Amino acid sequence: MVTSDTIAVPQSPEEAYQVYRDAASAVFLAGAQGLKYKKDHYGLIVDLSKAGLRYIRDAGDEVAIGAMTTLADLEKSPVVQAIAGGAICRCIRDIKNSDEKKATIGGVVAVKAPFSVVLPVLMSLRVDVVLEGKGRMNLADYIPCPPMREMVSQVVIAKEEVYTAFAAYRKLPTDEPYLTGAVAALDDEWRVVVGGRPGVAAIAETASAELTEKGMAVRENVAHLASEELDFANYGTCSEQERRSLTVDMVRKLIKEAWKGRSAQLQKAGKR
User: Fold this and answer.
1) What is 56-158's CATH topology?
2) CA of 90: how far to CAs of 9, 68, 194, 201, in Å?
3) CATH superfamily of 163-268
4) CB atoms near residue 68 (< 10 Å)
5) Which of 24, 116, 190, 196 qualifies as a FRET site for 92, CA 20 to 30 Å off?
C-alpha cells in the first residue's frame, strides 16, 4: 500500500489541484484500486473523497461525469445506459471482480491501464477529459500523452447516434483480459479500437477509415488491417502473434455486432 507523510482532504477540485501542485511529492487518492498494489512513499496523499467529484449530469448534448464516480455508479445509471446502446454499462457488467467496480472513472482514465475493458469503449465514442486548471482535451489525444502532473476532474461523453460493440478475452471470468476491443457504428462513420496489445487502447485509424469509406463489404480486410497497423507484443500467457490473430477474429465479430446494433437502433427510431 502507498504511504505518505501527510494526507490532505480538499473540499473542491480547485483546492485539490492546488495542494497537489504545491507538494514536491504527491499522489491522488481516488478509488485506491491501483494504490493498494504499490509500495511507493509520497510526501502527500490528496484524498479526493470530499472534493465534489462524484456525479453524473445530463447536460443536454453531452453527459458530464465527475472523476470520483465509480464504475458501479455508471453501471446503474439510466443516463449512461442510454449511451451507445448501453455499451458502457454492458462492459462494466462484464467485469466479474466486484473490487474492480469500485474504481473511479477518473482513475481509469488517468492510469491508462493497458488491459482496461472500459477504455476501448470510451475511445470508440466522442469523449473529452477535463484536466483541472488546464482545460479540456479529446480522450484519444490524452491517452498517449506522458504524465503531466495533471488532475482529471471530469469525463465528458457526447450524445450521438451510435452503437458500440465490445469484447474482452480472458482465460477465466475473473482474470485480467489479455485482449480488449470496441467497434462503434454511426450513420456515416466507424471507429475501431483495440486494447490489451499489451499497450493501452488505441484507435486503428487506417482500419476505421477503410470501413467508413467502403462499409460492411470490406469487413474481412478491415479486421486484418487493424491487426497489421497496431503494435502488439508478447506479454503474460499470450504472444504477439496470438494477439494479432485474435484481433482479426475479434474485429470481424465486433463489426458485425455493431452493424446489427446500429440497424436495430434505426428501426426502433422509425428511420429507413
Assistant:
1) 3.30.465
2) 33, 20, 17, 18
3) CO dehydrogenase flavoprotein, C-terminal domain (3.30.390.50)
4) 23
5) 190
With a pLDDT cut of 90, the percent of the chain lying above it is 82
- Least confident interval from 39-48, 67-76, 192-201: 39-48
Sheet holding 26-29, edge to edge: 3-8, 41-47, 26-29
Q: Which residue, chain included where needed, has cell 457504428?
A: 185
SS3 category, 55: coil
DSSP 191-225: EEEEE-SSSPPEE-HHHHHHHHHHGGGGHHHHHHH
User: Tens digits of per-residue pLDDT, 106-148?
Assistant: 999 999 989 999 999 999 999 999 999 999 999 999 999 988 8
What is the structure's pLDDT at 142? 96
Partner residues linked to 129 by β-bridges: 137, 155
Contact in structure between 184 and 190 (CB atoms under 8 Å): yes
37 has pLDDT over 60 = no
- 163-268 matches 56-158 in CATH topology: no
Q: Which residue in the block uniquely carries the three cell numbers 469487413?
A: 219
Mean pLDDT throughout 4-21?
94
The pair phi, psi for residue 71, each rounded to 5°, is -60, -35
Strands 3-8 and 41-47: parallel
Please give the C-alpha separations between residue 146 and each of 44, 112, 122, 150, in angstroms, as whole numbers: 22, 11, 19, 10
Cell digits of residue 90? 454492458
